[in-house]
C-alpha cells in the first residue's frame, strides 16, 4: 500500500524476485490510480463552465487569425473589445441548441429571450400578440461599437433595426445630427416601405445591442397583418415629413385609398345594375318566352364577368410599413458608454 501511495519507496526493499515483481506491480497500480484521479478531476472542472472554455478557445483562434493576417494594433483592439462586449466571456452555439428543439418550444424560448425588447418597444406593446411573436422569431441579434455606421445614406436598405440597448444618431448628408434614438426605438424601415434608398445615415454613439429584421421577413409578416402595414405607413410618412424627406407619402397613400374606393364603388354599381336587370328579366318571363329571357340573363351575367375581370384592385404604392417612437429627452453628458446584454450571446452566424 505504501508503494501504491508513493510514500514508502526504499523503506522496505524487496529481498527476492517475487518481492521485486510485487513492488513493481504496486508502483504501477499507484501511478495509474493517480492518473485516473487527475484526469477525472480535470474533466469535472472543465465541465462546470464549458461555455467559458469555448469562449477562450474562440478568442485564441481569433488572436491567431489576427496575427496571421498581421492586422494593425488598433483593429485588433476593436475586435477584442467587440468579443468582450458581445459574448461577455461565454460562448453558445445558439443555432444548434434552438435547432434541436420543437417549433413551439423554440418559439417560446425566443419570445422569452426577447422579452426585454418587447417590453421596451411601444410598437410591440400595442400590437397584436401573434404579430409580435411572428416578428420576434425572425429577428437577428447584432452588436455595433461606438462610431460604427449602421446605415449609410443613399444605399439600398435590406434591414430595419430595433434598439435593445444603446444610443444612435440620425445623421443627414451635411453631417448634422437630426435626432438621436435610444432603448426601445427602431429605425431603417423607411426604405423598406418606400422601396427607395436610405434617406439618412445612422451612427452608433455608444455600444448598441440591436435586433435586425430583413426585408424578406418584413414583407412576409406585414402581408399577413395588413392593419399593421397601414399603421407603419402612416408613421413612416410622419418621420419623412419630420426630417424633410418625401413629405408626400401620406398623400400618395390617400390617393391609393381613393383609387381603391372608386374601384370598389364601380364593382358595387355594376352588381346593382345587373341585379336590376335580373329582376326585370324575372318579371318579363311571365309575358315573354322563357328561352329568350334565359338567353338575355346569361348574356348579362357574361358581361358582368368581363367587367369584374377588367377591374384590378390596386395595391398601395408603399409596399411596407413601420411605426416610430417620439424621441425621449436625453442628457448627452451623462450617457452610459457601455451597455451589457443578457438576451442573446450568439446569433445564427458567428461574426
TrEMBL record:
Biological process annotations from GO: regulation of membrane depolarization; sodium ion transmembrane transport
Family matches, as InterPro entries: cNMP-bd_CS, cNMP-bd_dom, cNMP-bd_dom_sf, K/Na_HCN_channel, RmlC-like_jellyroll
Annotated SMART domains: cNMP
Biased composition range(s): Polar residues: 319-334
Residue ranges annotated for the Cyclic nucleotide-binding domain, each copy included: 123-239
CC terms in the record's Gene Ontology section: HCN channel complex
GO molecular function: voltage-gated potassium channel activity
Region (Disordered): 312-351
Top-level division of the source organism's lineage: Eukaryota
Basic and acidic residues composition bias: residue spans: 339-351
Protein name according to UniProt: Cyclic nucleotide-binding domain-containing protein
Amino acid at each position: 500500500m505504501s508503494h501504491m501511495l508513493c510514500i514508502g519507496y526504499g523503506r522496505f526493499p524487496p529481498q527476492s524476485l517475487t518481492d521485486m515483481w510485487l513492488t513493481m506491480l504496486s508502483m504501477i497500480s499507484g501511478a495509474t490510480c493517480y492518473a485516473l484521479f487527475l484526469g477525472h478531476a480535470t474533466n469535472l472542472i472543465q465541465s462546470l463552465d464549458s461555455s467559458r472554455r469555448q469562449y477562450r478557445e474562440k478568442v485564441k483562434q481569433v488572436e491567431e487569425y489576427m496575427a496571421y493576417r498581421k492586422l494593425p494594433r488598433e483593429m485588433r483592439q476593436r475586435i477584442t473589445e467587440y468579443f468582450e462586449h458581445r459574448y461577455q466571456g461565454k460562448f453558445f452555439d445558439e443555432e444548434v441548441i434552438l435547432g434541436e428543439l420543437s417549433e413551439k418550444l423554440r418559439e417560446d424560448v425566443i419570445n422569452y429571450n426577447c422579452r426585454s425588447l418587447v417590453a421596451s418597444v411601444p410598437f410591440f406593446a400595442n400590437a397584436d400578440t401573434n404579430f409580435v411573436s411572428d416578428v420576434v422569431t425572425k429577428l437577428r441579434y447584432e452588436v455595433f461599437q461606438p462610431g460604427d455606421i449602421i446605415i449609410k445614406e443613399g444605399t439600398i436598405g435590406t434591414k430595419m433595426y430595433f434598439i435593445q440597448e444603446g444610443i444612435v444618431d440620425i445623421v443627414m448628408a451635411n453631417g448634422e445630427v437630426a435626432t438621436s434614438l435610444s432603448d426601445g426605438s427602431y429605425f431603417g424601415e423607411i426604405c423598406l416601405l418606400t422601396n427607395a434608398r436610405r434617406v439618412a445615415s445612422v451612427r452608433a454613439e455608444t455600444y448598441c445591442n440591436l435586433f435586425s429584421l430583413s426585408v424578406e421577413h418584413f414583407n412576409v409578416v406585414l402581408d399577413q397583418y395588413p392593419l399593421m402595414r397601414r399603421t407603419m405607413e402612416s408613421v413612416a410618412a410622419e418621420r419623412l415629413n419630420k426630417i424633410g424627406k418625401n413629405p408626400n407619402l401620406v398623400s400618395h397613400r390617400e390617393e391609393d385609398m381613393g383609387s381603391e374606393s372608386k374601384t370598389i364603388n364601380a364593382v358595387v354599381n355594376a352588381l346593382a345594375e345587373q341585379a336590376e336587370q335580373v329582376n326585370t328579366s324575372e318579371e318579363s318571363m311571365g309575358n315573354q318566352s322563357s328561352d329568350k329571357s334565359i338567353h338575355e340573363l346569361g348574356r348579362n351575367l357574361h358581361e358582368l364577368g368581363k367587367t369584374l375581370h377588367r377591374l384590378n384592385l390596386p395595391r398601395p404604392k408603399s409596399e411596407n410599413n413601420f411605426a416610430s417612437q417620439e424621441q425621449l429627452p436625453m442628457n448627452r453628458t451623462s450617457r452610459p458608454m457601455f451597455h451589457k446584454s443578457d438576451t442573446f450571446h450568439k446569433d445564427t452566424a458567428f461574426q
